[in-house]
Every structure is written in C-alpha cells, then in structure tokens.
Amino acid sequence: MIDINPKQIEKLLKRGVAEVIVEEDLKQKLLSGKKLRLKEGFDPSFPDIHLGHMVGLRKLRQFQELGHQVVLIVGDWTAQIGDPSGQSVTRPMLSAEQVKNNAQSYMEQFFKVVDKSNTEVRWQSEWFADFDLGDVIRLTSKFTLAQMLAREDFNHRYQNNQPISITEFLYPLLQAYDSVAIKADVEFGGMDQKFNLLVGRELQSMIGMKPQDILMTPLLVGTDGTKKMSKSLGNYVGIADPPREIFGKIMSIPDDLLFSYYELLTDIDDKELMNIGVALNNESINPMELKKGLALQIVEFLYDNQAALEAENHFRRTIQEKELPQEVEKCQLGNQTTSLREFILAAGLAKSRTDAKRLVIQKAVEVDGQTITDVNFKLKPGDVVKVGKRRYVRCV
Predict the structure, then answer these.
(1) Average pLDDT of the chain?
(2) What are phi and psi of 238, to 5 degrees?
(3) DSSP state of 116
(4) Alpha-carbon distance 305 to 375, whole Å?
(5) What are the chain's domains?
(6) What is the pLDDT of residues 30-65, one digit of tens each?
(7) Of 122, 257, 336, 393, which has the fewest beta carbons less than 10 angstroms from its beta carbon?
(8) What is the pLDDT of residue 84?
(9) Cα 88 off chain centre by
(10) E-assigned strands of 202-268?
C-alpha cells in the first residue's frame, strides 16, 4: 500500500497539469493506497524527445516517486502498418528493424527522466500479433463513424473533402485497446491527445473494466515563443542534445516563457516560483540571470552538475565575451576554391545546399567574426566558420 496525504495529491494534480478526467476519481484512487498502473505510449516513427515531452515525463516521474508503476508501450505494431493512404506524414511505414532501433533510441532518452527500475516496457505486438479479422471487426463495431469524426483533424479533412483512410480510423481504437491489454489505471498525454485518450477510457467501460483516468499536461511553447515545441519547426531543445547546446538554446528563449518553463521543467517550490513571477512582472530582476539559472537546472537534471557548469562557462566565453571555444571542430576544405555554402554542407552545419544558402542569406553565418551573405565566398585554411550562435568549425 502507498501512503499519501491530500496535500501531496493536490500538488501532484495541479502543477504542470492542464486537465484531469475525472479528477475526483483519480484523487480517490490515489488516496486508496493502491499501486496504480500509469500508461504512456509512444510512436517509434520519430524517436527523438524534446523538453515539450519532458513536461509529461516529469509528471510520470513524480507519480513513480510515490510508488506507482509506469507502463511504457512501444507502438511497434501500428508503426509497421504506417498510413497506406499517404495522407499522414506522421505515420511512415517502418520495418521491424527500424522500429527496434527507434525504440532503443527513444528509451535511452526516456530513462533520462523516468525511473527505469520502476518502468514496465510492453510492445503492442504482444497482443496484436494474434489479432484476426474477427477481433478487428468486434473492436470496430464498438464505435461509430460519427464518434471518429468528432476528432478535430478528421472533421476538418472531412469538411474539406480530403480523403481519410479506414486505417486512420483504426489507430485511436488500437491505442485504446492498449489500455485494455495492460489494465491501465491512468493514461498520460498532452492536450493535443485528448480524443485518443478518451477513446481508451470509453473502450474500457464498454467491456466492463473500470475506466482509466486521464492526466493531460500543457503543451510547451517552443524557443520561438509562438508555437508549441516541435522538431519539425526547429524550435525545440532536445533531451539528447549536448549540454552546451541545451544551455545555449535555453538562453535564447523569449523572456515571457521564463515563468512557464520554470513551472513545467523544474522542481523549485511554489513560493520560489511565485517570487519569480512577481520579479518578472515588476521587472526587478534581469531575465538573463533567470535564464542562466533555468539552463543550469535543466542541464544538471539531464546530465550532471559538472556538465552544467562547463556549459555555462562555454556560453559566457563564446557568446557573452565573444571568445572562440577552447575546442573547435575541424573540417577539411575540398580544394582551394571551396565555397562557403559547400563547406557548411560538408561540415554538417546544414542538411542541404538549400538550407546552407538560407543560413547565409539570413545572416546566420560568420567567417572569422564577420557576417558573410555571399554563398560563393571562398574559404581558406585557418578560417573559422560560425553558424548560428553556437556552432564553430575551422577550415583545415
């Protein structure tokens, strides 16, 4: 039995939480002292985790610290189906080997935040590999087309006469069945997953199980200060990023994100959080100092104190004091007439020639401290190319 008091529950269900369905039911489950099974599923199509995901993972960790059981579900079965209609770019069809590799990468990052020793890892194929046509028909018979079209993105495509494959309708049902298979007590997810989470709750009720409660976390705004954090938008801070990269990205966030980042990504107590909010409102503190403190806490959490202090020192020397890093990557010039664009691409500072050109045109590239806007600028041995605020490469 797990010993917990009402004050702990209140904090657990309020800070860093957007909505709980049903809050009173979950409170009673927690007060009962029962060890709860906490469901967290992931799509191995894209294995990278960023700070936006960490908001929910930290909440899982808090439940774990009280003695509850996390059940991580690897969506290997659905990932191998993909989206045959080609309408969903977020569901590429993957091979079993790709799924395995992505899952391994995901879990390495996942366990930077969540306690591995108190996590049960399950693969969808454990129960779906033996599904036959009869099982599929029985599952689909429990839901109507109208229920599926209640999902915002499906409804939008339907209203705009855009095709929706039958397979796409199956995904929420399969994810819901995961909750049945593992006997989930609580499922975690972002606010953008509300529809799918509710389907799992409904399916459990239909077959006579006690319905899972749902805990949804806020969507973290990305480093651009406008849209939710996303790798595809480039406004993300990756959990697996090097400490220096994490520190530098945190230092670049807009000031108005500071309060929410402290609230959702750190363990400072509520009184200190309130003081930060007051200080920001009356402008009695330099936001730069708050960013530095935030960056130190996040790097230390994901790595260690030494890595955090080294990252801070690197930022101070290279950004604030405009010094070169002590260690600069090197890349060999192809020949004596290598252009800036070709060098950026060869050094791995851009994904394509088009991306390299964009960086140069947007004045994001310096050579020996001078901003260069000519993609055909000729480099020579010894030149130091800087891309963005933190990437340095020396021509050799």
Answers:
(1) 86
(2) -75, 140
(3) G
(4) 40
(5) 6-217 (3.40.50.620), 243-320 (1.10.240.10), 329-395 (3.10.290.10)
(6) 988 899 999 999 888 777 889 999 999 999 999 999
(7) 336
(8) 43
(9) 19
(10) 213-217
